[in-house]
Design a protein that fits this description.
Layout lengths: L2 H7 L2 E6 L5 H12 L4 E3 L8 E8 L6 H5 L3 E9 L1 E2 L11 E2 L7 H6 L6 E5 L8 E2 L2 E2 H6 L9 E14 L2 E8 L5 H11 L4 E11 L2 E2 L4 E2 H9 L8
Parallel strand pairs: 1-14, 3-12
Antiparallel strand pairs: 1-3, 2-3, 4-11, 4-12, 5-6, 7-10, 8-9, 10-11, 12-13
Helix pairs in contact: 2-7
Length: about 230
């Protein structure tokens, strides 16, 4: 079968999104290489994040919603002592906080408040729409709007390493959970401030990052006509 026909018929690809790429950048890169117009991703990753991105082509794009609905697993780092408007390292500091009172026991114990069904406000710098406008578009114009909290589910929130001011974590959560918001809220709960300084999506449902293509390798295979849909 011609390689292009494989993509037209429909392929689901696991891709490790590079840092500083948008999810749309990855889709565009693969659209150009595959020459297939119908292509999309199942769940956005912020530019600063790396990790698993599910890409669907052709007839497989009908399955995107099903992949998006599955639980996600993330690892990453919160950095204490500062906050930012975007809740991550994409924007400049807007607050400085003391964290000398925070010990290891507090960090572990305070994760309990963020487990289970929780209400969460999406970040001001996000693609959530209010009155037809994306929040980040309004935020960049200096406009603030009232945003309603959303219920999400956090089934796992483990602290995996502590080297203050940096704290490493593992979180398993439902669709629609903003890890950046957890970073901001967790910092407040510890009576300090924190932002998300690193993030990697390691799993979507049963699909694992360890099985994903590196983008450069995948593009090289496609461009050489060596792609086989059995990864």
């Amino acid at each position: 079968m011609e390689q292009r026909q494989i993509f037209e018929d429909g392929v689901m690809l696991l891709v490790n999104k590079p840092k500083d790429w948008t999810s749309f950048d990855v889709v565009n890169k693969l659209r150009y290489s595959t020459k297939v117009k119908k292509i999309g991703h199942a769940g956005t990753l912020d530019p600063m994040a790396t990790g698993l991105l599910i890409i669907c082509t052709g007839k497989k794009t009908k399955e995107i919603d099903a992949y998006q609905a599955q639980e996600k697993e993330y690892t990453g780092t919160f950095t204490f002592g500062h906050t930012t408007p975007s809740y991550d390292s994409e924007t400049q500091y807007n607050g400085t906080y003391d964290y000398s009172h925070i010990d290891n026991e507090m960090l572990v114990q305070n994760t309990e408040a963020f487990k289970g069904n929780i209400m969460q406000f999406p970040p001001a710098y996000s693609a959530v729409k209010v009155q037809g406008k994306k929040l980040y578009e309004l935020a960049r114009k200096g406009k603030s709007v009232e945003v309603q909290p959303r219920q999400v589910v956090v089934s796992t929130f483990d602290i995996t390493n502590i080297r203050m001011p940096e704290v490493d974590f593992k979180i398993v959560c439902s669709k629609g959970t903003y890890i950046r918001s957890i970073a901001n809220d967790y910092g407040k709960y510890c009576k300090s401030g924190a932002y998300l300084s690193a993030l990697c999506r390691t799993r979507i449902g049963e699909y694992k990052l360890s099985k994903a293509y590196e983008l450069t390798n995948l593009v090289e295979q496609i461009n050489k006509g060596n792609f086989a849909a059995n990864h």
